[in-house]
Design goal:
The protein has about 240 residues and is α+β, with helices and mostly antiparallel strands. Helix content is about 55%, strand content about 10%. It is globular and about 45 Å long. The structure holds glutathione.
Length: about 240
């Protein structure tokens, strides 16, 4: 049975997972989730992913969300010896570290600064900008101190897929990266040396850039994060 990937065409986590499918040449059915229409907000979708987030993998009824878990699953199941997710414990540990760094520190800062203002009408603030610069500084440090061609090893790994697709959000809003020369070098090298993966990332980046110019109106969606929706505050009593 062909695996299905529920993905959104401009979502960095979805794009990173698609790069794994493509790089490992794994057949799959891509199901485009319409974020603007709120297709991921339904009770039906929540059965696959109670977080109501995209992407979700459906491997014959085995549902898996969280892009990192999906990428690791695909590599472990279909290409256990591929350098995309190295087996050597020390190398794998660095890949895992970079994946955690991306989710908890790098993409979280980028998403709050780039994506939330586009999709949920929040303001870009000094604080959100400082967090992005802080994250870029740390990535610059990892690239300098690691001394590897890519973010974790001298090969492209799933950590690069996560970090590159986060970085497209910065390019989409014309963020000035000039004070981060190693980030630029790594980002440009990825584009040059991985043209098929870059086609996937670039298409998403172009969509984000369009939304940056013309933000969508999501007020119809009754989304929990929309500014018009009142927060339910629990007092704990
Ligand atoms: N930690 C999740 C994050 C996924 C995520 O943020 N997806 C966004 C789309 S890019 C989403 O589904 N957001 C749901 C929403 O804002 O309604 C992962 O890595 O898969």
């Amino acid at each position: 049975m062909t695996m299905k990937l529920y993905a959104v065409s401009d979502g960095p986590p979805s794009l990173a997972v698609r790069m794994v499918f493509q790089t490992l040449n794994i057949p799959y059915e891509l199901i485009d989730v319409d974020f603007i229409a709120g297709e991921h907000m339904t009770a039906e979708y929540a059965k696959m992913n109670p977080q109501k987030e995209i992407p979700v993998l459906d491997d014959a009824g085995f549902y898996l969300s969280e892009s990192i878990a999906i990428m690791q699953y695909l590599c472990d199941k279909y290409a256990p010896n591929n350098p995309l997710y190295p087996r050597d414990p020390a190398k794998r540990a660095i890949v895992n570290h970079r994946l955690c760094f991306n989710m908890a520190f790098y993409y979280s800062a980028i998403s709050a600064h780039c994506m939330a203002p586009i999709f949920f009408d929040y303001q870009r603030t000094d604080m959100s900008l400082k967090k992005v610069n802080n994250a870029l500084n740390v990535l610059e440090t990892y690239l300098r101190e690691g001394g590897t061609k890519y973010a974790a090893t001298d090969n492209v790994t799933i950590a690069d897929f996560a970090l590159i697709t986060a970085t497209i959000c910065l390019e989409a809003i014309n963020f000035d990266l000039s004070t981060y020369p190693l980030v630029i070098k790594w980002y440009e090298r990825f584009k040059q040396e991985n043209p098929d993966s870059w086609i996937i990332a670039n298409a998403g980046m172009q969509e984000i850039a369009q939304f940056e110019k013309n933000p969508p109106d999501l007020s119809h969606m009754n989304h929990p994060f929309h500014p018009t929706r009142k927060a339910k505050v629990s007092t704990g009593v």
